[in-house]
Structure formats: structure tokens, C-alpha cells
Description:
- The structure holds two protein chains of two kinds.
- Chain A is 49% helix and 7% strand.
- Chain A is α/β, with parallel strands linked by helices.
- Chain A has two domains: 33-229, P-loop containing nucleotide triphosphate hydrolases (Rossmann fold), CATH 3.40.50; 234-331, no CATH class.
- In chain A, helix 7 (182-198) links the parallel strand 4 and strand 5.
- Chain A starts with 17 loop residues before the first helix and ends with a helix.
- Chain B is mostly helical.
- Chain B has five helices and one strand.
- Chain B has helices at 2-6, 41-51, 56-64, 71-78, 82-93, and one strand spanning 10-12.
- Chain B is elongated, with a radius of gyration of 24 Å.
- Strand 1 (29-31) of chain A pairs antiparallel with strand 1 (10-12) of chain B.
Amino acid sequence: MSNSSPQGFPRELLQQSADARRRYFETKVIAHQRLFQVYEDLLHVIRYPAGTSLILVSGPTGVGKTTLLQRIVKQLVEDAACDPTIPPDHIPVMAMEAPSPDSGNFSWKDYFTRALIAADEPLVADKVAYELGGTPQSEQFPLSRRLTTPDLRRVLEKCLSHRRPRAFIVDEAQHIKKMASGRRLLDQMDTLKSLANMTSTVHVLIGTYELLGLMHLSAQLSRRSVEIHFPRYHAEEPEDLKEFKKLLRTFQRHLPLPEEPDLESHYAFFYEQCLGCTGMLKTLLNKALGAALEQEERTLTSQRWEQHAEPPQKLKDMLQRIKQDEATLKNQNDESHRNTLREMLGLHALPPQDGLLREETSLSSTPPVTSPQSKSRRRVGQRNAKRDLIGRGAESAK
Amino acid sequence: MQSETETVCEFWEEESSTSFPHSRLYHLEPIGMGSSLVESLTSYVTRLAEAHSVTVRNLVSHEIAPHLKQSYLSRSLDQNGHAAHQALTVFLEGK
């Protein structure tokens, strides 16, 4: 294969240190089809929320969610930089990682503190609780009073309503789910929802498939939220496989080595190693490139990437888990639920073939029901007896 | 077919700094701006401290005094009691 591809890395990079070359590849962000689509969708909802206060982005581990977050942050910062009318204290976007609970239960106190740090709030350690319109409470009890969780929440609320970010993004949001019981899980989500509503700040929760189902805990919640799915590439879909190969091709052109390696023809190996998740693929290539640069090799060989391969057992387990979650998601969007839904809504009197039936009757030259005679005989308010009889009435009718 | 095997993905330019320049404290509008009843500096600083949920003293000593190049002020504020109170009054009310 030719090693002077026009879209590849700048050739002068080859003269630079191994470290610089490794860094070049590591920081390269490929706008592959999946990432780009989710990015566009998410950006659209953030820009035009239309009543949405929570956005949920879920996808398997290593699919590129954190990369997505970085790009969204960058775009929103750029948007704000172009706007001359923004007030001087405005922060266009805040992003944080939800802390993993060490004691099993998620701590909101820790969450709010980290959120304040993410908001670049000054004097986070010196916060005091103000009574409504009164004096700061800690002035009276300088050492004994510690801030409670609601106090901290109020501090964050004030911060968000002054800074007015367009989005508050939480990475690894599945950690919020780490609670003891289902009852309290709803409280968790309600806390976030009310924080988002009261400060009119769109909250974006990014996390693994563990986030699925969180939005259906209450009707209030699902009405205010939007779910965005960040799927992996599925080898069984020809379109996906084509995109995956295209991605490999892009990667191989940007590996800063004198000779372009041939990753594309080994696509099956790479697909198996990353399960269609691009973040995992990137990690593998980073490792392989690091080793190749250390050995000062001219190109990346199969020996290098096989050296960093994951054991098949581990990959199999991972895939099983991902497939399980994907099945849950698919079930959620399944069309068969629509029929049940319509039945529950009392719409089952209008079955899909109803339209066809009506067409047939209109086509036939002698409409039996809509004759003027039968119409005139009915009084105003009298029901049109078009319904099926149910219950005992139906039995006796037979 | 040849053209298809040649296509590659776009890439986004490398990460730059994603921080956005903003004022460190909130941008409160002084009450009564433009009128003769405009609020005093004391009132303004008090409201600013409340908005940030910190005490007036902490706000002045950690956020304002360091920019004033008046080391006596921050020194006095670091102490407890009368000296700190006096320094704060001097700063806010110019007495």
C-alpha cells in the first residue's frame, strides 16, 4: 500500500520523538459515523431543549462516550465565544464525572461539592449556609455547624442560576444508580430533575447501559427527558461493517510510522477485540503503537497487536453483557408494545385494518349503514350502535 | 469499488483548551444603578457574599483583598476579633 496518502498524518512527524508521535495518535479524534451522529443529536437537544431538562446518553463501555463529552464541551465553548452579548460571569458548559461511591451508597454531598468545583466556584471549602434572607448561620456557630446536603444543594442552585450554563454534563452517571433500594432510586432521579428544573439548566447524563430504565421510574421524569442511544458497530449489519472498515482505514493512515500498516484486512481480529466499540479499538491501537515505537519498528505488525490482545473469555463475557442490555433496549422500543399501549388507551376499536375496511365500504356502491333513512331515524345524542357487545350482553346476543 | 475502499473518515482537530474566560465572582447588578439611591459598596459586597454562600469576611479576605496590594488589610483579616472587624469596616466604609 502506498505510504504517501494525502489524508494521512503530516510526514514531518516522523522526524519527531517517539513520544510526540504517540501523543499525536492518542489525541487524534476520528469523527466516525456513529460518534458524529450521536454528537449531532445531542447538540441539537442541548441547543433546542423544548421543555427537556434531562438528556440520557447510554452506550456500552468503550464506545466513545467520554470523547463525545469532550467534543460537546468544546463546541458549546466555541458557540459562547462567538456570542458578544453574554454576561461576564457566564460559563457555557460544566462537565464533571459522577463519583463512584466507596461505601456502596451514592453521596450527594460529594456530588454537589464536585459539581461546584466543576463550575469553577471560588471558596468551595468555605461555604456557609445562609438562612433565607438572613445572616450566614456559621457566623453564629463558627465551628460546630457543618453544611448539610440540602445546604450544599442550595449553593449549587445559586451557582447554576447565576452562571446559566447551557448544559451540565455528568459522565459515568450510572454511579448515581448505586443505591440500596428501588424506592430511593426514584428519589435520586427526582433530585436531578428538580435541580435541572429549578435552575433551568439542561442536565446531560452520560453512562453505560445501566442508565437504561432510569427515565421510566415516574411519568414526570419520562416526560421531561430524552434518551439518546450510542450504539456500537454491529458486524451482522453490512452497513456497520463497512463503516467499521472505513474507520480502520482512517486509523491506519494516521499511525505515525514510516510504512502504513494494513489493519483493514485484519478487520475480523480488530472487531473481535473491540466488539464494535471504537474506544476499545483505539486503546488497543495506542498500546500496539507504543510498543512499535519503542522497538523503533517501521510499521505495525500483527505480532504487536496480538501481543496486546484481550483473552477471548473476557471478551465473550463482555459481549454477553452488552447483548443483554441491547436486548433490553430493543424490547423497550419494540413495536408490539404499541398495540398494548393502544389497547390501554382504548384505541383498539380502531384496528389498523380499519382504514382498509372503510375504503372497501366507500368503494362498494350500496353503503348499508350510511343510508339517509337510517340516519334520520336516530335522535340527537343517541349512540351510533357500531360497537361490539361485550360481557353478558355479547353472550345473550349470540 | 475502488473509490469505496479509498474513503476514510473525517477527523476533528486536536483538543484545545476547553476553559472559557469568565469573571471569578457573579456579575450582580448594583441595586438602583443610575439613580441617587444606588446601593453602597457595603451592601453590594454583602449581597455578593450571600450569592456565593460565603461570609463577607472570607469573600473580602480571600477574593478581594489579594487584589488590592494593601497587605495590611489581608493581614488584619487573617486575625480574629477586633482587628479583623475594624479592617473590614475600613475597607467597606472607608472610615
